[in-house]
Amino acid sequence: VQLQACGGGLVQLGGSLRLSCSAFGIFFSINALGWHRQAPGKQREWVALMTPGGSTNYVDSVKGRFTISRDNGKNTVYLQMNSLKPEDTAVYYCNVGGIYWGQGTLVTVSS
User: Fewer CB under 10 Å: which end of the chain, C or N?
Assistant: First the structure.
């Protein structure tokens, strides 16, 4: 199984980014999908989750600003991030099935 994440970068306060993560070698549609992040000096934290049925959940700090979505045909999960804040700065990791991890993509929000 291989996960490839991309879409990170440097953005100003209030800006937007869309992360994507493509999976290879796994039945994508039957798995829960998630995004986590790890800020400098902090532990990795869960950010967003989508069940195989399409239900979503978010950590309180990103509710109303981030949206997780999936395209089963492309084996890809997305994280649309709007109204970004400096505290969103972190390396973002995708997760499939609670087991497989992407390599991480860095998001930096400047003030």
Answer: C
Rg, the chain, Cα only: 13
Is the pLDDT assigned to residue 7 strictly greater than 90?
Answer: yes
What was the pLDDT predicted at 95?
95
> Can you give the three-state secondary structure of the chain, one letter per residue?
CEEEEECCEEEECCCCEEEEEEEECCCHHHCCEEEEEECCCCCCEEEEEECCCCCEEECHHHCCCEEEEEEHHHCEEEEEECCCCHHHCEEEEEEECCCEECCCEEEEEEC
**Residue (of 38, 45, 52, 47) closest to 97 by Cα position:** 52
pLDDT-based confidence at residue 28 (cuts at 50, 70, 90): confident
pLDDT value, residue 1: 85
